[in-house]
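Here is one chain, start to finish.
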Amino acid sequence: MKIEEEILQPRFTSPNQKAVVNLMFTAGWLASKHQDFFKSYGITSQQYNILRILRGQHPQALSATEIKARMLDKNSDVSRLLDRLITKNLIEKKASLSDKRASDVFITDAGFELLNTIQLRQEELEGIMVLSPDEASQLSDLLDKCRG
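Its structure:
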């Protein structure tokens, strides 16, 4: 459906304004779809992002600061997200040997298992956007260009 129909706004002041509005609307739509998908696994998309970051770093640990720097959503409350993942036994925190003020964060076996389970439905998640591989590459290139 066209953005004009989605938000019931027939005109925009410029093609750039339309693109920005469309991008913001689509980002919200996509975030909502991801939240619905991850809800069935008892996690949020931000928690999933943390688990993927830790899996990619394994077997090394990361600090909360390093995790936040790598997250897609830079406004996330990483401490709260980590606490919830600890409660779910998906990650663990240990006192850092190199910096007494920091903690080292690791993914647990349960965290790996959850990611493996989600991976079985990864195509379903990626298929939310009905684009061909070429279109997806083109969109990604255009988004990179937007960020300069």
